[in-house]
Amino acid sequence: MSLAFDAMEFARVVHKDQRRKYTNNPYTDHLAEVAGTVATVVDWQLIHPQVMIATAWLHDCMEDQGVTTAGLWDHLSINSDYSMTEVEAVVRGVWFLSDLEEGNRAERKRLSRERLGGAPGWVQTIKVADLISNTSSIVQHDPKFAVTYLEEKRLLLDVLTLADPRLLQIARNQIQQPA
Known about the structure:
Strand content: under 5%
Number of strands: 0
Radius of gyration: 16 Å
């Protein structure tokens, strides 16, 4: 089994009861969209595609489902087909992508920008794919909240300087659309 396929299967299990806000679609639709977007821009020189796609599938498992770094490590390291370097990269990538900060919204978003600004480019690329997936739904279904959301995303995109430039441009174009 490939690392990306294993990650997809694990994500489908841990998110099985989660639904998308606004549409009530299975949450795994969002994860599939992010992983699919990432697969179109993965750069072999930065990271192995299996690691990047696996991380995209798992990017919300800690934040939304309470999976711990140890739990994710244990799940992925059971399979001897994956190197410890690959497992470590996925777990670290998911940690970077998990908003676990506490405090008021402004403080949490500031801390998130600091964390993600220090992430490797391949992790930043996954975050941009996540923003692209989320933005259209929020703008369409919650225009009032979209005003706040789009400003937060503008600030976040300013620190994601190592992300894939094609996805950055798509995300910037999205947030410049009137809410």
